[in-house]
Design a protein that fits this description.
globular, single chain, mainly alpha
C-alpha cells in the first residue's frame, strides 16, 4: 500500500481505448490492442490501497495481463507482479497475511510507483510503434 497519484492518461490514449473497447464487441482485438486495454484496465487496481493483493484476488487472466505489461515494455511493473504471484494462492483478506508476508508484499509494492511513473511514456511509445 502506497500513496501514488492516479495516472492521468493523455487524451490520445483515452480516445484509442474507448475506440478499442467499442470495437471489441464487433471483432477480435489484436494482441497489441488487447495489451493496451489490459494495461489501461489494470492500472486502477495497482493504484488501489490493496494493489498487488487486489490484482491477484481479481478474476482477470493474470498471466495475460503480466504479458501485456511486458509487451509494452513495462518491466518495472512485470517484476513486482511476478514477485507477488504467491498472493493468488493466499488468503482472500490482506489482513490475514503473516507479518513476514505483509512485510514482503509491502517491499514489493515499493517498486510500483517508479514503474507507474514511466507507464504513460511507455504506452505512448508502444502505440506509436505497434498501433500507429
Amino acid at each position: 500500500m502506497f500513496a501514488q497519484e492516479p495516472i492521468e492518461w493523455p487524451e490520445k490514449i483515452e480516445i484509442l481505448v474507448d475506440r478499442l473497447e467499442s470495437e471489441s464487441d464487433e471483432r477480435a482485438l489484436s494482441r497489441e490492442e488487447r495489451a493496451l486495454l489490459d494495461v489501461y484496465e489494470t492500472v486502477p487496481v495497482l493504484e488501489s490501497d490493496d494493489c498487488l493483493h487486489e490484482f491477484w484476488q481479481s478474476e482477470v487472466n493474470h498471466q495475460r495481463v503480466i504479458s501485456s505489461f511486458d509487451l509494452i515494455g513495462a518491466t518495472a511493473l512485470v517484476d513486482p507482479l511476478n514477485a507477488s504471484r504467491w498472493c493468488g494462492s493466499s488468503s482472500q483478506e490482506r489482513g490475514d497475511y503473516s507479518e513476514t508476508e505483509a512485510d514482503y508484499l509491502s517491499t514489493i509494492e515499493e517498486e510500483l510507483p517508479a514503474g507507474l511513473d514511466e507507464l504513460i511514456d511507455l504506452v505512448l511509445e508502444f502505440i506509436e510503434e505497434e498501433l500507429g
